[in-house]
Specification:
This protein is α+β, with helices and mostly antiparallel strands. It has 12 helices and 11 strands. It is globular and about 80 Å long. 16% of the residues are buried.
């Protein structure tokens, strides 16, 4: 955004930030919060403190102190922002679990590591944040987000102390962070929506089970190699033997033979498929063929976790 464009939005930005920054307390904190937001909005590849100070003409030390040392409750601001998003986007359709990667050149940014960078489409030096989005076919806006910390950052006490990681911080997987975001949204009584996620999350049986435990509908991608049953694998237990432990689960040989999803799809009749268009993209209408078939996940069968 150019300075001229930002100037044209001055009144709207002031109204938007007034309610959010009121939670920060002191007047100077509210001032520097606005300066920081303006710096993020202005054109420029680097969004660290010094470039932002240069673009806005702000005092570097004061801006650095606001970002790194100023004590204000981030959760209160996050909640107010989430409520604003819910109010502004009144006709959402789904919650989307997504990731945003921030390519980095150095090694000092918290959480930076060589990992998959979606922004570049390859493994690179970057930070990764997991986010929960309030989305419709026309618009999507993040409600909540968490920075992913690779294990190496938590295993290096000196490095963690240097960047002032909160004491007691423990390693959490991306799926655990995603569930934390969902739980936070539920605790704030934000309207429940179906959860959408890609195969990184969809392949995780425990993630899908956690969504069911929270009584959330979901549509998640899974890989074509995922093994399933097309018949309910729950079978009555055979009669108990006179000796030995009673059987808890049916013997594996009593279960129907599982198949991968690719094989299931290839064996469906042509009448099972429907062409569905779901949105207008930059290259025209996005459409594909879909079939709806009840299946039961074949992994985890010993725990009998096979909902359709």
């Amino acid at each position: 955004m150019t300075p001229r464009a930002l100037k044209a939005l001055e009144r709207r930005l002031e109204q938007f930030l007034e309610d959010l920054t009121a939670l920060m307390g002191r007047r100077e904190r509210r001032h520097w919060a606005r300066v920081y937001v303006e710096g993020l909005l202005l054109d420029g590849e680097r969004k660290s403190i010094e470039p932002i100070a240069t673009r806005t003409g702000a005092d570097v030390q004061a801006l650095r102190q606001f970002v790194g040392q100023s004590p204000w409750a981030v959760e209160q601001v996050e909640r107010r922002l989430a409520e604003k998003v819910v109010d502004l986007l009144r006709e959402p359709e789904v919650w989307i679990i997504d990731e945003t990667a921030f390519p980095k050149a150095g090694q000092h940014s918290v959480g930076v590591a060589r990992q998959y960078c979606g922004t570049l489409g390859k493994v690179a030096n970057c930070q990764v944040a997991v986010s929960l989005h309030w989305s419709s076919a026309e618009a999507s806006c993040p409600l909540l987000w968490r920075l992913y910390l690779p294990k190496a950052w938590l295993e290096d006490a000196e490095r963690a102390a240097e960047v002032k990681l909160p004491p007691g911080e423990v390693y959490r997987t991306k799926t655990e962070l995603a569930l934390e975001l969902i739980d936070q949204a539920l605790a704030w009584d934000l309207p429940r929506l179906p959860v959408v996620a890609d195969s990184f999350y969809g392949n995780d049986l425990s993630f899908r089970a956690a969504l069911r435990e929270r009584q959330l509908a979901y549509v998640v991608e899974v890989e074509a190699t995922t093994v399933v049953w097309t018949q309910d694998p729950q079978r009555p237990l055979p009669p108990a033997k006179k000796t030995g432990r009673p059987r808890q689960y049916p013997p594996q040989e009593a279960l129907p033979r599982p198949r991968d999803l690719r094989a299931v799809a290839e064996q469906l009749p042509a009448t099972a498929w429907r062409t569905v268009a779901w949105r207008e993209g930059s290259r025209g209408v996005q459409r594909s063929r879909f079939a709806r078939v009840p299946v039961w996940a074949a992994h985890g069968w010993r725990q009998q976790q096979h909902p359709p």
